[in-house]
Design brief:
The protein is mainly alpha-helical. Helices cover 62% and strands 4% of the residues. It contains 15 helices and three strands. It starts with 16 loop residues before the first helix and ends in a 10-residue tail after the last helix. The C terminus is likely disordered.
């Protein structure tokens, strides 16, 4: 990959990097719930930032030290199971704007160490989606360049960087979800659509048809059309899963076991969104485990199914949000037309959350029914059912091994009208073998 500017300067070991690392250790040991709370954390960051901003080594050396420390902390975070999208999701929730953007810059800097063909496709996709790019000309110019971009003083910039480093350093071990960067072992042209560095999980023509159907579902304003397109997409997904199961069960087939992927589940209404993902996963021979504190769910399943679950969930989330807003607006107009009071913020939230919970529950039933219909009409049922059952067992065992301790809880809608409207939206279409247009 070559050396970065200033990478092996002789003053690096004796310069500001040890001070940066010591500052991060001190900040990592401080809890916002401990004595002094958030103020104690900020005071410690201010003290260390003041010393570093005025360090005799100068801003170039301090910038190199901050980046080098950030890269090392991120690599340790990857080894603890985190991925770029996971870290940035938490930073958006818990960090200030400058600290968030420092984390993004650090992710881009850390990615320089890997050859492109050793990045897992999902990892590379996350870097593209995050727009994680090295915008500074060389590492000597990073600190001053970042300060100019953020319109901050050097002291404020170092403070933001230290608080960002504290966030990364305090990330716990969460278990791996795919290979680490640098170890994917992909070859040129391989991995399109795969999340683990192997060859494409879904045949491109099938994937294109499913995406086209879901795009139509997202673009229409008519709920019955949206769900008809989604149902047709689910049929194609179920057929593909069935074909994959048969291929894997064939004598001499060298199939892979279940894998995992993580999908963001963020507020508002994150409980309802997690339920929607769970419903999509269950309908497609996968298992989803929600980690509410980190804003994501881990989906366990075979690779082709994982790819299709992500497609369907992302599309249904768009559709459900649009349907929820239309229903909430219509209900608001009806209430006002009857002379009722405008809904309060609390009641509006209850309506929308109840809508999404009901939508998720009902749409899960309908997706599962569509998948069962495909299985029942399969050409070789005596071979299909055992193959699918074996894959379901393998997914269940993998999920149990990865998540030996999970809890279940029942979601209840607090708004009866929202629940009714959500069920109506999920029931609007005539699912089955209706042409998709």
């Amino acid at each position: 990959m070559g050396k970065r500017p200033g990478q092996d300067r002789p003053d690096e070991a004796a310069g500001p990097r040890p001070a940066v690392e010591a500052a991060v250790r001190r900040l990592r040991a401080l809890s916002a719930d401990g004595p002094g709370g958030t103020e104690a954390v900020e005071d410690a960051a201010y003290a260390d930032a003041s010393a570093l901003a005025a360090a005799p080594a100068g801003p170039a050396a301090v910038g190199r030290a901050l980046l080098a420390t950030a890269e090392a902390e991120l690599r340790r975070a990857w080894e603890r199971g985190w991925q770029p999208a996971d870290v940035l999701r938490l930073a958006r929730r818990d960090a200030t704007g400058p600290a968030l953007r420092f984390v993004l810059a650090a992710v881009a800097a850390e990615a320089r160490r890997y050859a492109p063909d050793t990045l897992p496709p999902r990892w590379a996709g996350q870097l593209r989606d995050l727009d994680a790019t090295v915008w500074w000309p060389d590492d000597d110019a990073f600190l001053e360049g970042f300060a100019r971009r953020e319109r901050l003083s050097r002291f404020e910039t170092v403070t933001s960087a230290l608080l960002a480093l504290r966030l990364v350093a305090r990330l716990p071990h969460i278990g791996t979800a795919g290979p680490l960067p640098g170890a994917a072992g992909t070859s040129a042209g391989a991995g399109a659509g795969r999340h683990d560095g192997r060859t494409a999980a879904v045949e491109p023509k099938t994937l294109a048809r499913i995406r086209a159907l879901l795009a139509k579902a997202e673009s229409t304003d008519f709920p019955d059309e949206a769900e008809a397109f989604s149902a047709k997409a689910q049929e194609l997904m179920a057929r593909h899963s069935l074909d994959e199961a048969l291929l894997a069960a064939a004598p001499g087939a060298a199939g892979d076991g279940p894998g995992t992927c993580r999908l963001g589940v963020e507020g508002p209404y994150e409980s309802a969104k997690a339920l929607l993902l769970h419903a999509v996963a269950e309908a497609n021979h996968c298992h989803a485990v929600w980690s509410a504190e980190y804003g994501f769910s881990t989906v366990v399943g075979f690779e082709a199914d994982l790819e299709l679950v992500e497609l369907m969930y992302t599309s249904l989330l768009v559709q459900a949000d649009a349907a929820m807003r239309r229903a909430a607006d219509a209900h608001h107009r009806e209430a006002n037309g009857r002379g009722g009071r405008a809904r309060s913020g609390r009641r509006t939230r209850d309506f929308r959350e109840s809508f999404l919970i009901a939508y998720a529950a009902r749409i899960g039933d309908r997706l599962s029914a569509a998948a069962r219909d495909v299985t029942e009409h399969a050409a070789r049922p005596a071979e299909v059912l055992p193959a699918l059952a074996a894959r379901d067992v393998a997914v269940g065992e993998t999920a149990e091994r990865l998540f030996p301790e999970t809890t279940s809880h029942r979601l209840r809608g607090r708004d009866a009208e929202g629940w009714a409207r959500g069920t109506e939206a999920a029931d609007a279409a005539r699912l089955g073998r209706r042409p998709a247009g």
